[in-house]
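Hi Y.,

Following your request, here is the sequence exactly as I used it, all 227 residues.
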Amino acid sequence: MIDLDRVSKQYEHGQNAVDEISLHVDKGEFVFVVGDSGSGKSTMIRLLLKEIEPTAGMITVNGRLLNTMRHRQVPKYRRKIGIVFQDFRLLEEMNVYDNVAFAMHAVEAPGRLIRERVPQVLHEVGLSEKYRSLPRQLSGGEQQRVAIARAIVNNPQILLADEPTGNLDPRNAYEIMKLIEEINLRGTTVLVVTHNKEIVNQFQKRVIMMRKGAIARDVEEGGYIEA
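Below is the corresponding structure, written out as tokens. Let me know if you'd prefer a different format.
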């Protein structure tokens, strides 16, 4: 599903954000990516989203070679990827329903499908009764649930989560990760970037440790890996 072959990304100052990393993630796998700030975790996410281009190496996602993908093909490629951020990134002037529906309008889904799918996904994330609420009327945990609903409403093959529990208390962090785990159990490949040692230790998934732009360790199943 995801293959990185000796991928490097060098910025203008000459330092490698990622340095010849090779990684394979199978379809349906759940992977935590951990490491200190500046270790290359978020750069990896940006490379997978094709927000930035690698300086060297090959990136293949779901059989598509990103290196040769043309700019006009990128929006269609991203439709198959859900993304969740630490800061939610909801549209403040839109209610819960419209925030989720926005993702379907963006891919030009028919109105009938939107009216059917959005309530279904809001039920899955436990927010059926909050569909008229604005983001400012929700707790942090509820806002992240909306962000997850928006990320999965188009049935992505891959879910990328960049510090999804970073702004949440321990109880909400655990509930959000349980929700992401349930999405994974339904067949979606999940890659979670996190600093949260407790969450990684609780869920006991594959853990990739990054350090100074390289993969320091890759443990098939276990807790947080110390540098």
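DSSP finds seven helices and ten strands in the chain.

Thanks again,
Q.
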